[in-house]
Amino acid sequence: GANKPGYHLRNANYPRDFQVDLMADIALAQPGDNCPKCRGKLSSARGIEVGHVFKLGTFISERFGASFLDNDGTSLPIVMGCYGIGLGRLLAAIVEQSHDDKGIIWPLSVAPYQVYLCPLSLDKPAVLPTAEKIYQELQKEGIEVLFDDRDDSPGVKFNDADLLGIPLRLTLSPRTLQSQSVEAKWRTEKEAQFLPLENLAAELNRLLREKSAE
């Protein structure tokens, strides 16, 4: 209304010069205030919208001629609704609820991979070939694996593993090869365990099933 003649009026007086549809005390609700309808106490909590439902009614169907025949054979417009799940928001909500100072902690049910395969000292004999064999065997068993074959230090790989938050980390090194085993560590646990290379895929499937059932 700025600079519009006659838009702002001085010396207006209610109810002489205008009428109102609603007169009320308007204020920002605060936790602990009384609900104006039920008189209960208001509370405040943070949330995130991960999905929505909109009732469209017949607004769109009438314009597009979308109809159906009811039991009496009468043509009626379709009553429509809009239902959506925000996948990006859903992932953000999961990360917000499941993380620590090192990174994400993906629940097994929604993790992008189940296993993080981490071979160390790739310049040492048998490490990389053994890791590639493990990768192929796990894939054949239907286990989803992220194979980190970068020639980086253990610290870099472990930090990245924690940051990505894949549920189970498998570490293969010259030391574990000497005992024909791999180190297995859940992202949610501090202690690791050693699993024999023999029948490794079957053992991992068992561990993953048990974890899923928790």
From TrEMBL:
<feature type="domain" description="Aminoacyl-tRNA synthetase class II (G/ P/ S/T)">
    <location>
        <begin position="44"/>
        <end position="97"/>
    </location>
</feature>
<dbReference type="GO" id="GO:0006433">
    <property type="term" value="P:prolyl-tRNA aminoacylation"/>
</dbReference>
<dbReference type="InterPro" id="IPR036621">
    <property type="entry name" value="Anticodon-bd_dom_sf"/>
</dbReference>
<dbReference type="InterPro" id="IPR004154">
    <property type="entry name" value="Anticodon-bd"/>
</dbReference>
<feature type="domain" description="Anticodon-binding">
    <location>
        <begin position="114"/>
        <end position="205"/>
    </location>
</feature>
<dbReference type="GO" id="GO:0005524">
    <property type="term" value="F:ATP binding"/>
</dbReference>
<dbReference type="GO" id="GO:0004827">
    <property type="term" value="F:proline-tRNA ligase activity"/>
</dbReference>
<dbReference type="GO" id="GO:0005829">
    <property type="term" value="C:cytosol"/>
</dbReference>
<dbReference type="Pfam" id="PF03129">
    <property type="entry name" value="HGTP_anticodon"/>
</dbReference>
<dbReference type="Pfam" id="PF00587">
    <property type="entry name" value="tRNA-synt_2b"/>
</dbReference>
<dbReference type="InterPro" id="IPR050062">
    <property type="entry name" value="Pro-tRNA_synthetase"/>
</dbReference>
<dbReference type="InterPro" id="IPR045864">
    <property type="entry name" value="aa-tRNA-synth_II/BPL/LPL"/>
</dbReference>
<dbReference type="InterPro" id="IPR002314">
    <property type="entry name" value="aa-tRNA-synt_IIb"/>
</dbReference>
<protein>
    <recommendedName>
        <fullName>Proline--tRNA ligase</fullName>
    </recommendedName>
</protein>
<dbReference type="InterPro" id="IPR044140">
    <property type="entry name" value="ProRS_anticodon_short"/>
</dbReference>
